[in-house]
Amino acid sequence: MREVSIELLETAVQFSRDLQCWLITDDGKVIEPALAILKEAIRESSAFQFVKDPLSFISRLR
């Protein structure tokens, strides 16, 4: 998935709020269910960095 669906993120945030849950990122960071915070967590994720620029991401692993 190269583009993040805002509707999907909004649904995830609302679902988490409805259940009074927090979200956990792939690296274990706990974040509150807020659209801006979730979008920032996605931008900081290694998966997003890889999709954005695979060669640069892989070169940083060395």
Describe the protein in words.
- This protein is mainly alpha-helical.
- The chain has one domain (6-61).
- Helices cover 61% and strands 6% of the residues.
- Strands 1-2 form a two-stranded antiparallel sheet.
- β1 (23-24) and β2 (30-31) form a beta hairpin.
- The two termini are 25 Å apart.
What characterizes the major β-sheet? Answer: 2 strands, antiparallel
In percent, how helical is the residue content? Answer: 55-70%
- Oligomeric description of these chains: single chain
Shape: elongated
Structural class: mainly alpha
- Cα end-to-end separation: 25 Å
Number of helices: 4
Radius of gyration: 13 Å
As residue ranges, the low-confidence spans are: none
Mean pLDDT: 92
**Total domains:** 1
Q: Count of DSSP E strands?
A: 2
Order of helices and strands: HEEHHH
Write a compact overview of the structure shown.
61% of the residues lie in helices and 6% in strands. With 62 residues, it is mainly alpha-helical.
Which characteristics define this entry?
4 helices, 62 residues, 2 strands, mainly alpha, 61% helix
How do the helices and strands line up, and which of them pair or pack?
Elements: H1 6-18, E1 23-24, E2 30-31, H2 35-44, H3 46-52, H4 54-61
